[in-house]
Amino acid sequence: MAAGAELFRRNGYSGTGLKQIVAEANAPFGSLYHFFPGGKEQLGAEVIRTSGLAYIQLFDLFIAPAPDVISGIEAFFAAGIATLEATDYVEGCPIATVALEVASTNEPLRQATADVFTAWIDAGTEKFGKFGLGPAAARTLTITAVNNLEGAFVLCRSLRDTEAMAVAGAATADVAQRLLDENAQL
């Protein structure tokens, strides 16, 4: 599954073949159908759900230990910049890459990406709520962060420049500050 996640992240779902996945995993080809009788589609859905849920840990890594929500957001987006630069703009988010490809053509994979995005929104809402935001504001901030991050990955990879990620981080921090200010006035 790790090999599939890595290849989907770099090449997308359509650009990744079963032989590539098996070779990357150093596994016999027959094992793929033993564990995934539904073939590439079943493997794809499992990879999306498993790797997508692992990304929830990024909230725990960058947001939760931060002294405040703004610092956490800044660290989160700085990590996105570091990933892009370290991988020469090859690696982005495997969930968004696959979601863009299959949203209107493959219902099981669309549902898998929707499940992951829903889990991210739920987790982010909980994490941002610990900084004193109410549920609606925390949800708004989470959706803003996910939207900005995913859009920035697309632009950065295409332009081979991290400016969009820096702008996305600053915009997300601005939304967070506005929501915190609104919360303080209540």
Would you write up a description of this structure?
- This protein is an all-alpha fold and 186 residues long.
- The protein starts with a helix and ends with a helix.
- It has 10 helices and no strands.
- It has helices at 2-11, 18-25, 29-35, 39-54, 57-63, 69-86, 94-102, 107-129, 135-159, 163-185.
Rg, nearest Å: 18 Å
List low-confidence stretches.
none
Biggest sheet layout:
none
Mean residue pLDDT? 90
Class by SSE composition: mainly alpha
- Form type: elongated
Q: What percent of residues are in strands?
A: under 5%
Helical element count? 10
Task: List SSEs in N-to-C order.
Answer: HHHHHHHHHH
> Helical content, roughly?
over 70%
Number of strands: 0
Query: What distance separates the N and C termini?
Result: 47 Å
Task: Record the SSE blueprint.
Layout: H1 2-11, H2 18-25, H3 29-35, H4 39-54, H5 57-63, H6 69-86, H7 94-102, H8 107-129, H9 135-159, H10 163-185
Helix pairs in contact: 1-2, 1-4, 1-7, 4-8, 5-6, 6-9, 6-10, 7-8, 8-9, 9-10
Task: Give structural attributes.
186 residues, mainly alpha, 10 helices, elongated
Short description:
The protein is an all-alpha fold and 186 residues long. The protein is built from ten helices and no strands.
